[in-house]
Protein backbone atom coordinates (compact mmCIF):
# COMPACT_ATOMS: atom_id res chain seq x y z
CA UNK A 1 0.00 0.00 0.00
CA UNK A 2 1.30 3.37 -0.93
CA UNK A 3 0.41 6.92 -1.77
CA UNK A 4 1.60 8.37 -5.03
CA UNK A 5 2.05 12.10 -5.34
CA UNK A 6 2.99 14.27 -8.28
CA UNK A 7 3.91 17.83 -7.34
CA UNK A 8 4.13 20.91 -9.60
CA UNK A 9 5.24 18.91 -12.58
CA UNK A 10 6.25 20.65 -15.79
CA UNK A 11 7.76 18.94 -18.78
CA UNK A 12 8.96 19.77 -22.28
CA UNK A 13 10.94 17.72 -24.78
CA UNK A 14 14.35 19.37 -25.39
CA UNK A 15 13.25 22.74 -24.04
CA UNK A 16 10.59 23.28 -26.68
CA UNK A 17 7.01 24.16 -25.80
CA UNK A 18 5.74 22.67 -22.57
CA UNK A 19 3.82 19.42 -22.93
CA UNK A 20 2.70 19.30 -19.31
CA UNK A 21 2.33 22.24 -16.97
CA UNK A 22 1.77 22.38 -13.22
CA UNK A 23 0.47 18.89 -12.76
CA UNK A 24 -0.51 18.05 -9.20
CA UNK A 25 -2.12 14.79 -8.32
CA UNK A 26 -2.40 12.41 -5.43
CA UNK A 27 -3.40 8.78 -5.50
CA UNK A 28 -4.26 7.46 -2.07
CA UNK A 29 -3.75 3.95 -0.76
CA UNK A 30 -5.51 1.44 -2.94
CA UNK A 31 -7.28 4.11 -4.94
CA UNK A 32 -7.90 3.96 -8.69
CA UNK A 33 -7.60 7.31 -10.39
CA UNK A 34 -8.45 7.69 -14.05
CA UNK A 35 -6.73 10.20 -16.29
CA UNK A 36 -9.19 11.06 -19.00
CA UNK A 37 -8.25 13.15 -21.99
CA UNK A 38 -7.86 13.24 -25.74
CA UNK A 39 -5.18 11.16 -27.46
CA UNK A 40 -1.84 12.85 -27.87
CA UNK A 41 -2.63 15.09 -24.92
CA UNK A 42 0.39 14.24 -22.80
CA UNK A 43 -1.04 11.39 -20.73
CA UNK A 44 1.58 8.89 -21.77
CA UNK A 45 4.33 11.47 -21.26
CA UNK A 46 3.11 11.92 -17.70
CA UNK A 47 3.33 8.15 -17.21
CA UNK A 48 6.83 8.01 -18.59
CA UNK A 49 7.83 10.63 -16.05
CA UNK A 50 6.20 8.83 -13.12
CA UNK A 51 7.84 5.57 -14.28
CA UNK A 52 11.22 7.34 -14.27
CA UNK A 53 11.83 6.99 -18.00
CA UNK A 54 11.76 10.77 -18.52
CA UNK A 55 13.05 13.52 -16.26
CA UNK A 56 10.80 16.54 -15.73
CA UNK A 57 12.14 20.10 -15.95
CA UNK A 58 10.28 20.91 -12.78
CA UNK A 59 8.45 19.06 -10.09
CA UNK A 60 8.72 15.85 -8.18
CA UNK A 61 7.24 12.38 -8.01
CA UNK A 62 6.82 10.97 -4.51
CA UNK A 63 5.79 7.61 -3.11
CA UNK A 64 4.87 7.77 0.57
CA UNK A 65 6.80 11.01 0.71
CA UNK A 66 9.97 9.53 -0.75
CA UNK A 67 11.29 11.30 -3.84
CA UNK A 68 11.53 8.88 -6.79
CA UNK A 69 11.76 11.43 -9.61
CA UNK A 70 13.73 9.93 -12.51
CA UNK A 71 14.05 6.55 -10.84
CA UNK A 72 13.04 3.46 -12.74
CA UNK A 73 12.16 0.17 -11.13
CA UNK A 74 9.77 1.52 -8.51
CA UNK A 75 6.39 1.91 -10.20
CA UNK A 76 4.93 -0.79 -12.40
CA UNK A 77 3.79 0.03 -15.85
CA UNK A 78 1.42 -1.58 -18.29
CA UNK A 79 0.61 -0.53 -21.81
CA UNK A 80 -2.04 -1.07 -24.42
CA UNK A 81 0.21 -3.56 -26.18
CA UNK A 82 0.68 -6.54 -23.87
CA UNK A 83 4.44 -6.62 -24.68
CA UNK A 84 4.71 -10.24 -23.78
CA UNK A 85 7.90 -11.53 -25.35
CA UNK A 86 6.96 -14.07 -28.05
CA UNK A 87 9.91 -16.31 -27.21
CA UNK A 88 9.11 -16.80 -23.54
CA UNK A 89 6.30 -18.91 -22.15
CA UNK A 90 3.51 -17.10 -20.35
CA UNK A 91 4.89 -17.92 -16.91
CA UNK A 92 8.41 -16.88 -17.87
CA UNK A 93 7.04 -13.63 -19.24
CA UNK A 94 5.21 -12.93 -16.01
CA UNK A 95 8.32 -13.88 -14.03
CA UNK A 96 10.47 -11.30 -15.84
CA UNK A 97 10.20 -8.49 -13.27
CA UNK A 98 11.16 -10.97 -10.53
CA UNK A 99 14.15 -12.19 -12.55
CA UNK A 100 15.21 -8.61 -13.13
CA UNK A 101 15.12 -8.05 -9.40
CA UNK A 102 17.59 -10.92 -9.10
CA UNK A 103 15.34 -13.77 -8.02
CA UNK A 104 16.23 -17.20 -9.38
CA UNK A 105 14.09 -18.82 -12.03
CA UNK A 106 12.66 -21.58 -9.89
CA UNK A 107 11.52 -19.29 -7.12
CA UNK A 108 10.09 -16.76 -9.58
CA UNK A 109 8.06 -19.44 -11.37
CA UNK A 110 6.71 -20.62 -8.06
CA UNK A 111 5.44 -17.16 -7.22
CA UNK A 112 3.92 -16.83 -10.69
CA UNK A 113 2.10 -20.15 -10.35
CA UNK A 114 0.76 -19.07 -6.98
CA UNK A 115 -0.99 -16.14 -8.68
CA UNK A 116 -2.23 -17.45 -12.02
CA UNK A 117 -5.41 -18.85 -10.48
CA UNK A 118 -6.41 -15.51 -9.04
CA UNK A 119 -5.75 -13.73 -12.34
CA UNK A 120 -7.74 -16.26 -14.32
CA UNK A 121 -4.91 -17.64 -16.41
CA UNK A 122 -4.35 -20.93 -14.62
CA UNK A 123 -3.47 -23.79 -16.97
CA UNK A 124 -1.89 -21.46 -19.50
CA UNK A 125 1.49 -21.09 -17.78
CA UNK A 126 3.40 -23.23 -20.28
CA UNK A 127 1.86 -21.74 -23.39
CA UNK A 128 3.42 -19.10 -25.57
CA UNK A 129 1.72 -15.69 -25.81
CA UNK A 130 0.73 -16.33 -29.44
CA UNK A 131 -1.46 -19.20 -28.24
CA UNK A 132 -3.53 -16.92 -26.00
CA UNK A 133 -6.44 -14.64 -26.86
CA UNK A 134 -6.04 -10.87 -26.56
CA UNK A 135 -7.92 -10.80 -23.26
CA UNK A 136 -5.83 -13.60 -21.77
CA UNK A 137 -2.65 -11.84 -22.84
CA UNK A 138 -3.76 -8.66 -21.07
CA UNK A 139 -4.46 -10.70 -17.94
CA UNK A 140 -0.94 -12.10 -18.09
CA UNK A 141 0.43 -8.60 -18.64
CA UNK A 142 -1.47 -7.31 -15.62
CA UNK A 143 -0.15 -10.12 -13.44
CA UNK A 144 3.36 -9.27 -14.63
CA UNK A 145 2.66 -5.65 -13.70
CA UNK A 146 1.34 -6.68 -10.31
CA UNK A 147 4.34 -8.89 -9.51
CA UNK A 148 6.68 -6.10 -10.43
CA UNK A 149 5.24 -3.70 -7.91
CA UNK A 150 2.14 -4.54 -5.97
CA UNK A 151 1.58 -1.10 -4.51
CA UNK A 152 1.67 1.47 -7.33
CA UNK A 153 0.69 0.73 -10.91
CA UNK A 154 0.33 2.81 -14.05
CA UNK A 155 -2.02 1.36 -16.64
CA UNK A 156 -1.91 3.05 -20.03
CA UNK A 157 -5.11 2.19 -21.92
CA UNK A 158 -4.72 -1.48 -21.03
CA UNK A 159 -7.98 -2.61 -22.61
CA UNK A 160 -8.31 -0.23 -25.54
CA UNK A 161 -6.97 -2.67 -28.14
CA UNK A 162 -9.66 -5.23 -27.33
CA UNK A 163 -13.02 -5.57 -29.07
CA UNK A 164 -16.07 -4.24 -27.19
CA UNK A 165 -17.31 -7.61 -25.95
CA UNK A 166 -13.91 -8.77 -24.72
CA UNK A 167 -13.40 -5.35 -23.21
CA UNK A 168 -16.52 -5.48 -21.04
CA UNK A 169 -15.61 -9.04 -20.01
CA UNK A 170 -12.19 -7.68 -19.02
CA UNK A 171 -13.85 -4.92 -16.98
CA UNK A 172 -15.84 -7.50 -15.01
CA UNK A 173 -12.66 -9.53 -14.54
CA UNK A 174 -10.67 -6.48 -13.51
CA UNK A 175 -13.22 -5.33 -10.91
CA UNK A 176 -13.28 -8.87 -9.58
CA UNK A 177 -9.51 -9.30 -9.31
CA UNK A 178 -8.92 -5.85 -7.87
CA UNK A 179 -11.44 -6.52 -5.15
CA UNK A 180 -8.72 -8.42 -3.29
CA UNK A 181 -5.74 -6.43 -4.44
CA UNK A 182 -5.35 -2.94 -3.15
CA UNK A 183 -3.05 -1.38 -5.70
CA UNK A 184 -2.82 2.39 -5.94
CA UNK A 185 -3.47 2.78 -9.62
CA UNK A 186 -3.41 5.49 -12.25
CA UNK A 187 -5.40 4.42 -15.24
CA UNK A 188 -5.24 6.22 -18.58
CA UNK A 189 -8.20 6.00 -20.89
CA UNK A 190 -10.17 7.99 -23.42
CA UNK A 191 -13.25 5.84 -22.82
CA UNK A 192 -15.65 7.73 -20.52
CA UNK A 193 -17.71 4.62 -19.64
CA UNK A 194 -14.61 2.69 -18.68
CA UNK A 195 -13.43 5.57 -16.51
CA UNK A 196 -16.71 5.83 -14.60
CA UNK A 197 -17.05 2.08 -14.15
CA UNK A 198 -13.56 1.48 -12.78
CA UNK A 199 -12.39 4.54 -10.92
CA UNK A 200 -12.73 6.17 -7.57
CA UNK A 201 -11.86 9.53 -9.05
CA UNK A 202 -11.52 10.87 -12.57
CA UNK A 203 -9.08 13.63 -13.47
CA UNK A 204 -9.56 15.45 -16.72
CA UNK A 205 -6.39 16.33 -18.58
CA UNK A 206 -6.70 18.90 -21.32
CA UNK A 207 -5.35 21.94 -23.10
CA UNK A 208 -2.02 22.71 -24.60
CA UNK A 209 0.20 22.51 -22.61
CA UNK A 210 -1.82 19.90 -20.72
CA UNK A 211 -3.06 20.66 -17.25
CA UNK A 212 -5.47 18.93 -14.95
CA UNK A 213 -8.71 20.79 -15.55
CA UNK A 214 -11.21 19.01 -13.37
CA UNK A 215 -11.86 16.28 -10.87
CA UNK A 216 -14.94 14.08 -10.62
CA UNK A 217 -15.35 11.78 -7.65
CA UNK A 218 -17.24 8.58 -8.44
CA UNK A 219 -18.86 8.05 -5.10
CA UNK A 220 -20.14 4.55 -5.61
CA UNK A 221 -19.54 1.50 -3.46
CA UNK A 222 -17.13 -1.17 -4.65
CA UNK A 223 -17.36 -3.86 -5.87
CA UNK A 224 -19.44 -2.44 -8.67
CA UNK A 225 -21.40 -4.74 -10.85
CA UNK A 226 -21.15 -4.25 -14.57
CA UNK A 227 -24.84 -3.33 -14.53
CA UNK A 228 -23.79 -0.05 -13.00
CA UNK A 229 -23.33 1.30 -16.53
CA UNK A 230 -27.08 0.97 -17.10
CA UNK A 231 -28.17 3.04 -14.13
CA UNK A 232 -29.32 6.67 -14.07
CA UNK A 233 -26.57 7.61 -11.68
CA UNK A 234 -24.04 6.37 -14.22
CA UNK A 235 -25.59 8.57 -16.89
CA UNK A 236 -25.49 11.56 -14.55
CA UNK A 237 -21.75 11.09 -14.11
CA UNK A 238 -21.34 10.68 -17.83
CA UNK A 239 -23.29 13.87 -18.58
CA UNK A 240 -21.18 15.82 -16.10
CA UNK A 241 -17.93 14.55 -17.57
CA UNK A 242 -18.87 15.13 -21.18
CA UNK A 243 -19.88 18.69 -20.43
CA UNK A 244 -16.47 19.30 -18.92
CA UNK A 245 -14.28 17.65 -21.52
CA UNK A 246 -12.68 20.28 -23.67
CA UNK A 247 -13.04 18.85 -27.11
CA UNK A 248 -10.29 20.01 -29.44
CA UNK A 249 -11.42 21.59 -32.68
CA UNK A 250 -12.27 18.53 -34.71
CA UNK B 1 0.34 -43.27 -42.49
CA UNK B 2 0.35 -40.08 -40.47
CA UNK B 3 -0.62 -36.83 -42.15
CA UNK B 4 2.74 -35.36 -41.35
CA UNK B 5 4.68 -38.20 -42.93
CA UNK B 6 2.49 -38.02 -45.99
CA UNK B 7 3.09 -34.31 -46.39
CA UNK B 8 6.85 -34.84 -46.02
CA UNK B 9 6.81 -37.49 -48.71
CA UNK B 10 4.73 -35.42 -51.10
CA UNK B 11 7.03 -32.45 -50.53
CA UNK B 12 10.12 -34.56 -51.21
CA UNK B 13 8.63 -36.28 -54.26
CA UNK B 14 9.13 -33.39 -56.67
CA UNK B 15 12.81 -32.60 -56.04
CA UNK B 16 13.65 -36.31 -55.92
CA UNK B 17 11.88 -36.90 -59.23
CA UNK B 18 13.76 -33.97 -60.77
CA UNK B 19 17.06 -35.35 -59.51
CA UNK B 20 16.35 -38.83 -60.87
CA UNK B 21 15.45 -37.38 -64.27
CA UNK B 22 18.61 -35.29 -64.30
CA UNK B 23 20.82 -38.30 -63.54
CA UNK B 24 19.02 -40.40 -66.15
CA UNK B 25 19.55 -37.75 -68.80
CA UNK B 26 23.18 -37.40 -67.80
CA UNK B 27 23.73 -41.16 -68.04
CA UNK B 28 21.96 -41.25 -71.41
CA UNK B 29 24.11 -38.45 -72.85
CA UNK B 30 27.31 -40.19 -71.73
CA UNK B 31 26.31 -43.63 -73.07
CA UNK B 32 24.67 -42.60 -76.34
CA UNK B 33 27.07 -39.74 -77.13
CA UNK B 34 30.08 -41.92 -76.36
CA UNK B 35 31.76 -39.10 -74.47
CA UNK B 36 35.24 -39.92 -73.14
CA UNK B 37 35.38 -40.45 -69.37
CA UNK B 38 37.96 -37.72 -68.74
CA UNK B 39 35.61 -35.16 -70.39
CA UNK B 40 32.37 -36.13 -68.69
CA UNK B 41 32.14 -39.25 -66.58
CA UNK B 42 28.70 -40.86 -66.39
CA UNK B 43 26.87 -41.15 -63.06
CA UNK B 44 27.77 -44.85 -63.04
CA UNK B 45 31.48 -43.94 -63.41
CA UNK B 46 31.21 -41.42 -60.61
CA UNK B 47 29.54 -43.94 -58.36
CA UNK B 48 32.24 -46.51 -59.15
CA UNK B 49 34.95 -43.96 -58.41
CA UNK B 50 33.38 -43.16 -55.07
CA UNK B 51 33.04 -46.85 -54.26
CA UNK B 52 36.71 -47.44 -55.04
CA UNK B 53 38.08 -44.40 -53.24
CA UNK B 54 35.64 -43.64 -50.41
CA UNK B 55 37.99 -44.53 -47.58
CA UNK B 56 40.58 -42.08 -48.80
CA UNK B 57 37.95 -39.43 -49.47
CA UNK B 58 36.49 -39.76 -46.01
CA UNK B 59 39.89 -39.45 -44.34
CA UNK B 60 40.40 -36.21 -46.28
CA UNK B 61 36.86 -35.15 -45.44
CA UNK B 62 37.70 -35.53 -41.75
CA UNK B 63 40.44 -32.92 -42.05
CA UNK B 64 38.24 -30.54 -44.03
CA UNK B 65 35.42 -30.90 -41.52
CA UNK B 66 37.78 -30.31 -38.61
CA UNK B 67 38.96 -27.07 -40.22
CA UNK B 68 35.36 -26.14 -40.93
CA UNK B 69 34.26 -26.65 -37.34
CA UNK B 70 37.20 -24.81 -35.79
CA UNK B 71 36.76 -21.98 -38.29
CA UNK B 72 33.03 -21.82 -37.67
CA UNK B 73 33.49 -21.79 -33.92
CA UNK B 74 35.90 -18.86 -33.94
CA UNK B 75 34.05 -17.12 -36.78
CA UNK B 76 30.82 -17.19 -34.81
CA UNK B 77 32.59 -16.14 -31.62
CA UNK B 78 34.30 -13.18 -33.29
CA UNK B 79 31.15 -12.27 -35.22
CA UNK B 80 29.14 -12.31 -32.00
CA UNK B 81 31.64 -10.21 -30.04
CA UNK B 82 31.90 -7.67 -32.85
CA UNK B 83 28.12 -7.36 -33.04
CA UNK B 84 27.85 -6.87 -29.28
CA UNK B 85 30.57 -4.22 -29.19
CA UNK B 86 29.19 -2.42 -32.26
CA UNK B 87 25.70 -2.46 -30.79
CA UNK B 88 26.91 -1.08 -27.48
CA UNK B 89 29.22 1.67 -28.77
CA UNK B 90 27.89 3.57 -31.76
CA UNK B 91 31.28 5.23 -32.32
CA UNK B 92 32.90 1.85 -32.84
CA UNK B 93 30.03 0.85 -35.07
CA UNK B 94 30.48 3.89 -37.26
CA UNK B 95 34.23 3.27 -37.47
CA UNK B 96 34.24 -0.45 -38.10
CA UNK B 97 31.09 -1.09 -40.10
CA UNK B 98 32.39 0.24 -43.46
CA UNK B 99 35.65 -1.65 -42.98
CA UNK B 100 33.75 -4.85 -42.33
CA UNK B 101 31.76 -4.37 -45.52
CA UNK B 102 34.87 -3.56 -47.55
CA UNK B 103 36.59 -6.66 -46.18
CA UNK B 104 33.88 -8.74 -47.82
CA UNK B 105 34.56 -7.36 -51.29
CA UNK B 106 38.00 -8.96 -51.31
CA UNK B 107 37.69 -12.29 -53.13
CA UNK B 108 38.45 -15.34 -51.01
CA UNK B 109 40.54 -16.91 -53.76
CA UNK B 110 42.79 -13.85 -53.74
CA UNK B 111 43.64 -13.87 -50.03
CA UNK B 112 44.04 -17.61 -49.67
CA UNK B 113 47.55 -17.71 -51.25
CA UNK B 114 48.62 -14.72 -49.14
CA UNK B 115 47.48 -16.47 -45.99
CA UNK B 116 49.53 -19.52 -47.00
CA UNK B 117 52.60 -17.35 -47.52
CA UNK B 118 52.14 -15.77 -44.11
CA UNK B 119 51.10 -18.80 -42.11
CA UNK B 120 52.48 -21.85 -43.86
CA UNK B 121 50.95 -25.04 -45.15
CA UNK B 122 49.33 -26.23 -41.95
CA UNK B 123 45.78 -25.78 -40.78
CA UNK B 124 46.07 -22.18 -39.56
CA UNK B 125 45.66 -20.32 -42.88
CA UNK B 126 42.62 -22.44 -43.71
CA UNK B 127 40.97 -21.71 -40.40
CA UNK B 128 41.74 -18.01 -40.72
CA UNK B 129 40.15 -17.94 -44.16
CA UNK B 130 37.01 -19.61 -42.84
CA UNK B 131 36.82 -17.14 -39.97
CA UNK B 132 37.12 -14.24 -42.43
CA UNK B 133 34.26 -15.62 -44.48
CA UNK B 134 32.03 -16.68 -41.59
CA UNK B 135 32.12 -13.72 -39.23
CA UNK B 136 30.57 -11.25 -41.65
CA UNK B 137 27.06 -12.65 -42.08
CA UNK B 138 26.97 -13.42 -38.36
CA UNK B 139 27.94 -9.88 -37.34
CA UNK B 140 25.52 -8.22 -39.74
CA UNK B 141 22.56 -10.40 -38.85
CA UNK B 142 23.10 -10.13 -35.09
CA UNK B 143 23.57 -6.39 -35.31
CA UNK B 144 20.32 -6.10 -37.19
CA UNK B 145 18.56 -8.37 -34.70
CA UNK B 146 19.86 -6.32 -31.77
CA UNK B 147 18.78 -3.00 -33.23
CA UNK B 148 15.38 -4.18 -34.45
CA UNK B 149 13.99 -4.72 -30.96
CA UNK B 150 10.73 -3.00 -30.16
CA UNK B 151 11.47 0.33 -28.46
CA UNK B 152 8.40 0.04 -26.22
CA UNK B 153 9.53 -3.35 -24.97
CA UNK B 154 12.93 -1.92 -24.09
CA UNK B 155 11.19 0.98 -22.29
CA UNK B 156 9.04 -1.45 -20.34
CA UNK B 157 12.15 -3.39 -19.31
CA UNK B 158 13.82 -0.15 -18.30
CA UNK B 159 10.80 0.87 -16.25
CA UNK B 160 11.20 -2.44 -14.42
CA UNK B 161 14.72 -1.33 -13.58
CA UNK B 162 16.45 -3.75 -15.96
CA UNK B 163 20.15 -3.20 -16.50
CA UNK B 164 21.67 -2.99 -19.96
CA UNK B 165 22.90 -6.54 -19.52
CA UNK B 166 19.43 -7.79 -18.59
CA UNK B 167 17.83 -6.05 -21.56
CA UNK B 168 20.45 -7.72 -23.74
CA UNK B 169 19.82 -11.13 -22.26
CA UNK B 170 16.04 -11.08 -22.10
CA UNK B 171 15.18 -9.01 -25.17
CA UNK B 172 17.97 -8.35 -27.64
CA UNK B 173 19.57 -11.75 -27.75
CA UNK B 174 16.45 -13.91 -28.16
CA UNK B 175 15.05 -11.32 -30.57
CA UNK B 176 18.00 -11.82 -32.91
CA UNK B 177 18.14 -15.62 -32.80
CA UNK B 178 16.01 -16.06 -35.93
CA UNK B 179 18.26 -13.84 -38.00
CA UNK B 180 21.31 -15.45 -36.46
CA UNK B 181 20.29 -18.91 -37.61
CA UNK B 182 19.41 -17.74 -41.11
CA UNK B 183 22.89 -16.33 -41.47
CA UNK B 184 24.44 -19.37 -39.83
CA UNK B 185 23.00 -21.55 -42.58
CA UNK B 186 24.77 -19.38 -45.14
CA UNK B 187 27.95 -19.31 -43.09
CA UNK B 188 28.06 -23.08 -42.75
CA UNK B 189 28.04 -23.71 -46.48
CA UNK B 190 30.52 -20.87 -47.08
CA UNK B 191 32.78 -22.40 -44.47
CA UNK B 192 32.99 -25.77 -46.24
CA UNK B 193 33.68 -24.12 -49.59
CA UNK B 194 36.35 -21.86 -48.07
CA UNK B 195 38.06 -24.83 -46.47
CA UNK B 196 38.21 -26.58 -49.84
CA UNK B 197 39.46 -23.47 -51.66
CA UNK B 198 42.23 -22.89 -49.14
CA UNK B 199 43.26 -26.53 -49.43
CA UNK B 200 43.74 -26.05 -53.18
CA UNK B 201 46.44 -23.52 -52.51
CA UNK B 202 48.63 -25.61 -50.32
CA UNK B 203 48.74 -28.46 -47.88
CA UNK B 204 48.78 -32.21 -47.86
CA UNK B 205 45.41 -33.14 -46.42
CA UNK B 206 41.77 -32.29 -47.00
CA UNK B 207 39.21 -32.63 -49.75
CA UNK B 208 40.62 -29.62 -51.59
CA UNK B 209 44.00 -31.35 -51.71
CA UNK B 210 42.44 -34.54 -52.94
CA UNK B 211 40.63 -32.52 -55.60
CA UNK B 212 43.84 -30.95 -56.85
CA UNK B 213 45.49 -34.36 -57.11
CA UNK B 214 42.69 -36.04 -59.04
CA UNK B 215 42.42 -33.01 -61.32
CA UNK B 216 46.10 -33.23 -62.18
CA UNK B 217 45.69 -36.90 -63.08
CA UNK B 218 42.59 -36.16 -65.19
CA UNK B 219 40.45 -38.50 -63.03
CA UNK B 220 37.24 -36.61 -63.76
CA UNK B 221 35.15 -39.40 -62.26
CA UNK B 222 36.85 -38.92 -58.86
CA UNK B 223 36.58 -35.16 -59.31
CA UNK B 224 32.82 -35.44 -59.70
CA UNK B 225 32.61 -37.86 -56.80
CA UNK B 226 34.39 -35.47 -54.45
CA UNK B 227 32.30 -32.51 -55.63
CA UNK B 228 29.15 -34.44 -54.82
CA UNK B 229 30.63 -35.43 -51.46
CA UNK B 230 31.31 -31.77 -50.63
CA UNK B 231 27.73 -30.85 -51.55
CA UNK B 232 26.38 -33.63 -49.38
CA UNK B 233 28.55 -32.56 -46.43
CA UNK B 234 27.33 -28.96 -46.79
CA UNK B 235 23.73 -30.14 -46.91
CA UNK B 236 24.20 -32.21 -43.78
CA UNK B 237 25.69 -29.22 -41.97
CA UNK B 238 22.82 -26.99 -43.06
CA UNK B 239 20.37 -29.62 -41.88
CA UNK B 240 22.16 -29.84 -38.52
CA UNK B 241 21.90 -26.07 -38.22
CA UNK B 242 18.16 -26.32 -38.76
CA UNK B 243 17.90 -29.02 -36.10
CA UNK B 244 19.87 -26.82 -33.71
CA UNK B 245 17.61 -23.88 -34.54
CA UNK B 246 14.49 -25.83 -33.69
CA UNK B 247 16.06 -26.94 -30.42
CA UNK B 248 17.06 -23.38 -29.48
CA UNK B 249 13.82 -21.76 -30.58
CA UNK B 250 10.94 -24.04 -29.50
CA UNK B 251 8.51 -21.11 -29.67
CA UNK B 252 9.03 -20.69 -33.40
CA UNK B 253 7.11 -23.82 -34.26
CA UNK B 254 4.25 -22.93 -31.92
CA UNK B 255 4.03 -19.38 -33.22
CA UNK B 256 4.06 -20.40 -36.87
CA UNK B 257 1.35 -23.00 -36.26
CA UNK B 258 -0.71 -20.34 -34.54
CA UNK B 259 -0.54 -18.04 -37.55
CA UNK B 260 -2.09 -20.62 -39.86
What number is the mean pLDDT of chain B? 89
CATH H level of the largest domain in chain A: which superfamily? P-loop containing nucleotide triphosphate hydrolases
CATH topology type of chain B: MetI-like fold
Instruction: Give the amount of beta strand of chain B, in percent.
Output: under 5%
- By DSSP (H or I, 4+ residues per run), the number of helices of chain A equals 7
Gap between N and C termini of chain A, in Å?
Answer: 41 Å
Number of domains of chain A: 2
Report the largest inter-chain contact. Answer: A-B, 28 and 23 residues
Compute the CA-based radius of gyration of chain A.
18 Å
SSE order of chain A, one letter for each helix or strand: EEEHEEEHHHEHEHEEH
Terminal CA distance of chain B: 23 Å
Helices and strands of chain B, in order, run as HHHHHHHHHH
Report the major sheet of chain A: 6 strands, mixed
Largest beta-sheet details of chain B: none
Supply the CATH architecture of chain B.
Orthogonal Bundle
Architecture overview:
The complex is a heterodimer of chains A (250) and B (260). Chain A is an alpha/beta fold and 250 residues long. Chain A has seven helices and ten strands. The longest helix of chain A has 15 residues. Chain A is globular. Chain B has 260 residues and is mainly α. At the A-B interface, helix 2 of A face helix 6, helix 7 and helix 10 of B.
Descriptive tags:
heterodimer, A: 250 residues, alpha/beta, Rossmann fold, 2 domains, 6-stranded mixed beta sheet, 4-stranded antiparallel beta sheet, 7 helices, 32% helix, 22% strand, B: 260 residues, mainly alpha, MetI-like fold, 10 helices
Write the layout of secondary structure elements.
The complex is a heterodimer of chains A (250) and B (260).
Chain A: E1 4-11, E2 20-27, E3 32-36, H1 43-50, E4 58-63, E5 66-67, E6 76-78, H2 90-100, H3 105-116, H4 134-148, E7 152-156, H5 164-178, E8 184-189, H6 192-198, E9 201-206, E10 211-217, H7 232-244
Parallel strand pairs in A: 3-8, 3-9, 6-7, 7-8
Antiparallel strand pairs in A: 1-2, 1-4, 4-5, 9-10
Helix pairs in contact in A: 2-3, 2-4, 6-7
Chain B: H1 3-33, H2 43-88, H3 90-103, H4 108-119, H5 124-147, H6 151-159, H7 164-201, H8 207-216, H9 220-248, H10 250-259
